[in-house]
Amino acid sequence: MAPQIPGMPEPPEPDPGQGAHGSQPWYSRGDDIAFAHIALAADAGGLTHASVHLRHYLDNSGTDLKIDPDQIMHDDPGLKRLVDQIMTVTLQDIAGDPASYSKSVPFQLLPWQGYTFDKNGQPDWYLAIGSIHVTTSGIVTVHPQDAAGAQPRVTVDYQIHLSDRYNWDGLKQTKIAGVKVTDARMGALHTAGLAQEFNMLGSSTIKHYEGVVPTNGAIDLPNGSDSRDGTRTDPGR
User: Fold this and answer.
1) What is the pTM of this model?
2) Would 182 be classed as within a structural domain?
3) CB of 164 within 8 A of CB of 126?
4) Which domain holds residue 152?
């Protein structure tokens, strides 16, 4: 039976985006059709998740989109290293407190930490998400060692949580499938009521670690899995 660990904490407040949905006068659907073609071209060019997220934006539903931290960490070692660092500091703090010895200590980390995908190294996730908020939650049991000066061992079950808002809120521009796309142009679809911003949320599978907590360096925790076996319109592919 899976341990009852704390769930995802309240996501951080999103930035304001370009404005309220449908707050600007309706205009020609030409841009909407053009961006639908960009989504198709992005998928054909291997930008699978960028295409899925753009399609969801153009669907104009505003519903949450589930993302998979396991898959994303598998794809992006930088995100995995950040999670390792977050968890290492957390375990060092808990294991360093004698009051926590031989007890099950729940944790749910706040504030969330920010991570930005590398535009060149991870172009698909950069275009699909850009930057993401990261945190973890779990339960730790600290097992003090008998030997003098020995580091305590820990047993921990934990999850990684990701959260962000898909919106276009700045002055940036980028290229998707060779077409220049600006924040202003994309955000205008939302304010014109032709597309809608949405939340991206996801929690990893429950992971387990047993071992000594190092005083220097980060623990190399279990990595995410690559479970992509769906179709091109499946976000988990």
Assistant:
1) 0.87
2) no
3) no
4) 65-177+199-212
Q: Are strands 198-203 and 65-66 parallel, antiparallel or unpaired?
A: parallel
Q: Cα–chain-centroid distance for residue 205?
A: 13
- Six token digits for residue 132: 């993401």
Q: Is residue 118 a part of any domain in this protein? A: yes
CB contact set of 163 (below 8 Å; sequence gap of 6+): 8, 11, 12, 112, 132, 133, 199, 200, 201
- Give me the number of domains the chain comprises: 1
Distance separating alpha carbons of residues 162 and 131, to the nearest angstrom: 10
| For residue 76, pLDDT beyond 50 | yes
- Answer yes or no: is 193 within a domain: no
- pLDDT tens across 3-29, in order? 589 999 999 998 877 788 888 776 545
Whether 235 maps to a domain, the answer reads no
| DSSP string of 129-196, one letter each residue | TSEEEEEEEEEEEEE--SSTTPPPEEEEEEEEEEEEEE---SS-EEEETTEEEEHHHHHHHHHTTSS-
* Contact in structure between 168 and 152 (CB atoms under 8 Å): no
